[in-house]
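Archive entry. Fields below.
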Amino acid sequence: MTPRYLCVPLFGPPGVGKGTQGGILAHIPGFFHLSVGDVFRSVDIGSESGREVYKHISRGELVPDALTIKIWRKAVEAYIALSRFKPREDLLILDGMPRNVSQVEMVKEYLDIRKVIYLRCTDEEDMIHRIRRRAIRENRVDDANEEVIRNRFRVYREVTAPVLERYDSSIIHEVDANGSPAEVLRSILDCLIPVQNELFAANRREEEQSESST
Ligand code: ADP
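PREDICTED_STRUCTURE:
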């Protein structure tokens, strides 16, 4: 059996601030942040997979599950090969997956999910405003068109939100995304630090065991 990566997904609607927080967390040693949306946006559009991905993203639809898992695994393996992600030392902060209930089942083979961070924002108009600003800053195909944005919210409500019900409520860490970036970060770290400490402790135990057996 392949070892599973210790993982905390960042969950929440489009424009809630997952990317902003993920970008900050990516600078902290011991965390490896990966955004599935970013992985998709970096797929070569000239390839067959790239064209398929673009077709779905530009409509605000989810990319099909099998293709999502295939591209995601390839990206993770590449980061491991480059030593950018060290699964023994780093906690994987996964932004954008699982994004529907069938992905919840599919990722079980690869991910050991200890907590789920749920960024919660009730003001859809505020999130749409953030997405519009991001469209200009990041030149994203799925951010520019009002209809595509609305479709992404519909997909979130109908297909993605039910993911939360698949996890025990005791592992869901809810964060009020209306706070300042620093407040949101503090709440996210409150959740992540104990999980990261578990990883450190497990590594220490392993090292002690291997020292005592030599
Ligand atoms: P946002 O934070 O605005 O939702 P993302 O960058 O996370 O944007 O995702 C952009 C797009 O990439 C999604 O609208 C969807 O088309 C696709 N995508 C991202 N993650 C997944 C996933 N796990 N499964 C299928 N499609 C995905």
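CURATOR_NOTE: The chain has one domain: 5-34+86-213.
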